[in-house]
Every structure is written in C-alpha cells, then in structure tokens.
Amino acid sequence: VFEDASLAVCEVAKEIAEAIRARQAEGKSFVLGLATGSTPVPLYRELVRMHREEGLSFANVTSFNLDEYFGIESRHPESYHRFMREQLFDHIDMPEAQINIPQGAVAREEVFEACQAYEEKIEACGGIDVQILGIGRTGHIGFNEPGSGPHSRTRLVTLDRLTRLDAARDFQGEHNVPRYAVTMGVGTIMDARKVYLLAWGRSKAEVIKAAVEDAPVESLPASFLQAHSNAYFILDTASASELT
Ligand code: F6R
C-alpha cells in the first residue's frame, strides 16, 4: 500500500526496468503483459520517462495486451490499439512486430481461431514474465467478468452492464459501448510468472477488499489471484481503505 499512485507506479516501473535490463544483459527477450484503462496511465508515463531520461530500451520486449473491444476497428478513437499507441508505444522503442493486442475487428466465425492463435503466440514467446492488471468494479481482470472460470483462456466475452456503464462516458453514451470483447482468460493471466494488479481511489475499495479477503469465487474473478504464487496488489491508501 502506497501513499499515492505516483509513488506506487515508480516502484513497479523500477522493478519492470530492472527485469528488462537483466534480460538484456543475457541477450534475451522479456515478455510484458499490458492493460488499458485509466489505472496504468501513470505507470506508462513513468516507463516513457525512463526511456527518455534513463536510456531504458524496450528493444528486447515483446508485449501482449489483455483485451480489446469486439467489433471495432483498431483506428476507432476508443480502441485499445489506439490507447496503447497514444499512451506507450508511440513514445518508446519497442519494435512494431513485437506488439500484440487481440484483434477486435474480426468476423465472428473467425474469433475462436484468432483467440487460439493469441494463446499459441504467448506460449511460443515463452510465456508472460510480468502481467500488469487493473480491476473493474465487477471484479473483472482483463474483461473476465463475473462467471469467468479460473481456467478460462482467451475468448469472446459479453461485457457486464456495470462495465459498459463505466465506459459510457468515453463512448459518449452507453448505447455506443460495445457489448462484447476479446480477452485473455483468467487461466492465461494465472500462467504469467509475476502479476501486478494496480488499483487507485475509493471507488475500488470494496472490490479490492472482496478480491483479497473473501474466498475465491467465479462471481469475482480477481479473487482467483489469491492462488497465484507471485501476484501483488499495488494499492494507494484510498483503494486499500476497506481492508481489515
Ligand atoms: C483493461 C482491462 C480492465 C481494466 C479495468 C479497470 O485492459 O483489462 O480490466 O483494467 O476495467 O479500468 P480502469 O483502470 O479504467 O478503472
């Protein structure tokens, strides 16, 4: 638990940078799992600063994003492709070919195969070294809404009403928010060697308490992280305020 988000992200960014540099020293690549939404924005800002001011290179990094809205083109203003470009990829030296984000603009009959290919690519790259997560008020990680099982893999999912309401402002109205998304599964996330779940602000306090203190259940997918041997909840005092 940190006093505020900026102190918290400095710590996480430092650990990620150390891990990337250690791999560089061995001439090996590093696989980073990334999230979107407002939560990781200050983390990406800090990584960009480290790239500009401290010479942190992402040349050996391969990234896999958690999710993308289904049925929207990558150039859509609210696509996660666009978000990642604006917040991170346009400002660092990660080669284009090493960036992976689930495709939202695939035909429905091709989604299953695309999801399988995504899983296979993660595996072919040696698995995810560090996965960054946010948490939704439904308890989702990625877009694994309540009802997602602990062994779920990358797939097409239906977004929860609360998640769509939370996204309504960005999309200028709930009716514009996609109903479906493609997301890595809980099982995909659990396979990452290290997980950082970040959460800031009072609005996340209840869901953080339930995820950390209640028994793991499908109705709150983030609670499955309790069974991960190397998962960290990185919180500010407000999001930690309901913890006993
Ligand atoms: C985004 C994602 C979601 C968000 C969550 C929190 O890639 O996977 O799980 O992390 O909805 O969103 P924010 O950070 O906007 O509160």
Automatic annotation (TrEMBL):
One of its GO terms (biological process) is N-acetylglucosamine catabolic process. Residues 5-229 form the Glucosamine/galactosamine-6-phosphate isomerase domain. GO terms for molecular function: glucosamine-6-phosphate deaminase activity. Keywords: Hydrolase. It comes from the Bacteria. Transmembrane segments: none annotated. This is Glucosamine-6-phosphate deaminase. It comes from Pelagicoccus enzymogenes. The gene is nagB.
